[in-house]
């Protein structure tokens, strides 16, 4: 999945994956604050 | 985007040039703009600052119901940008880019690259869409997740690879956590996905369990749990839910459909003055139609009855309509009702867009900012029109394509220029005069912040208490770490005052309706407010003049 995210035709997946990853980390940080 | 595209004709080259130009403009804006939307300053991003101080669960710093009840998977994405101080709108801009990419790829595959580039320009000509794509609100991720789901389904059907099913599942999970309405759309898309797999048991089971996992990880389950714990309902206090949802069933849905489509009729840009003759006339006509159908105030949020109905066309990210291309999208949606062409792509998209507007009308109470709930459906209606223009070939259709592109180019260029905080001058102000620019929508809070800084400079030991209401604009005060402002509800404030925590010289800002007669008022600040009927709001700054606790009788 990560390798596929690097291809141009997978740009929407890359963006969504990036947002989801950021979200997961930020929510964990905030919940544990 | 152009690697395997056939050669473009003139219309495609013109559209491509302006599409890249507009995307570059909005990208730079997203990079430099501070948090400008008032909702984010009240709760979307303000909540992150508060959660960073006290966590999510049982957080005493949460002073508004909106800090608790709304899902936050997309809001949380902005945390690193809050720390950086720049690039707040980049996540929304990436959602806009991703959506444009999906539209480009799918339109190009069916109608060619010329149609695809014109489709991108027409999307960038929808003011409400580009304002949301350069904002920090959580409406555009719903559109983007929907676009990813459509794209992944399209590729899954073409390539038969399971990885695309996985992205369909992930898009649904993130959609459910981005905004409460995402739950509804996510539920519909989940059913659709499972229906597609009805004859394939193993993939269906995998997708079903994947959906559970995606919703658990990305669906903001924690905010629903906390909301249920505090208010007894995962979506929030039932009284508030009744206010936010359409309370009048089918009649409310019909009234909202008239308001939502009426808001799409473009009669020229709106300014911030009182001399808006044509828009006022259009809004009056909408009000009369609703009255004639005996639907006055039906389906609307009680605070936004038809007495104040006004179809704002451009200028404000919270309230803007969709411009002339939006009107053509509405025409296309309604055209699908009168021209039955279920096998043609334009008809399918137009009918889906109209059904989407009907769904929003049926579920969400009308407010002045309902347009941003509709960005996906207006975008779909716009793409439907582009498809209609490329569905067949004829000389007159080629002329119409050019006519459409000219209107779209004009709208795409006008979208930032007609906004009070999106034009080139605004972009410069976002860098050179950042504090004033940030609070441009609600200048009062900027004035208060400035005054507080000055008062704190005079007495650095003074503590700052901010007595807030549910809808206080708190982020600009919170993000100035030197102020060390403590948010308190009126009840909390009365309690600490009674317990004698206030010290001589402490500063209290009031934004609640509560009177605080036991404190000495030192200043009353007024500033224009574009959301207020009277265009001014007042906020008081008090200085605590006596350190002993006031008498209990004075505190009630």
Which oligomerization state do the chains in this entry correspond to? heterodimer
Main sheet summary of chain A: none
Helix content of chain A: over 70%
User: Which band does the percent of strand residues of chain A land in?
Assistant: under 5%
From the alpha carbons, calculate the radius of gyration of chain B and give it in angstroms: 25 Å
What count of helical segments of chain B does DSSP give?
A: 25
* Biggest chain contact: A-B, 23 and 45 residues
Count of alpha/pi helices of chain A: 2
| Morphology call of chain A | rod-shaped
What is the residue-mean pLDDT of chain A, rounded to a whole number?
A: 88
- The SS-based structural class of chain A is mainly alpha
Which structural class do you get from the secondary structure elements of chain B?
mainly alpha
Description:
- The complex is a heterodimer of chains A (33) and B (556).
- With 33 residues, chain A is mostly helical.
- In chain A, 76% of the residues lie in helices and 0% in strands.
- Chain A has helices at residues 2-5, 11-31.
- Chain A is rod-shaped, with a radius of gyration of 12 Å.
- The model of chain A has no long low-confidence stretch (mean pLDDT 88).
- Chain B has a 5-stranded mixed beta sheet with strand order 2-1-3-5-4.
- By secondary structure, chain B is mainly alpha-helical.
- The model of chain B is unreliable at 551-556 (pLDDT under 50).
- Chain B has 25 helices and 5 strands.
- In chain B, α10 packs antiparallel against α11 and α17 (323-338) packs across α18 (345-363).
- At the A-B interface, α2 of A face α3, α6, α9 and α10 of B.
What's the gist of this structure?
Chain A has 33 residues and is mainly α. In chain A, 76% of the residues lie in helices and 0% in strands. The mean pLDDT of chain A is 88.
Topology:
The complex is a heterodimer of chains A (33) and B (556).
Chain A: H1 2-5, H2 11-31
Chain B: H1 10-32, H2 38-44, H3 46-54, H4 66-69, H5 79-84, H6 90-111, H7 113-124, H8 127-132, H9 140-159, H10 162-178, H11 180-196, H12 201-218, H13 221-231, H14 238-244, H15 249-262, H16 277-292, H17 323-338, H18 345-363, H19 375-390, H20 395-417, H21 424-432, H22 434-438, H23 443-458, E1 464-467, H24 475-478, E2 486-488, H25 490-498, E3 507-510, E4 520-528, E5 536-543
Parallel strand pairs in B: 1-2, 1-3
Antiparallel strand pairs in B: 3-5, 4-5
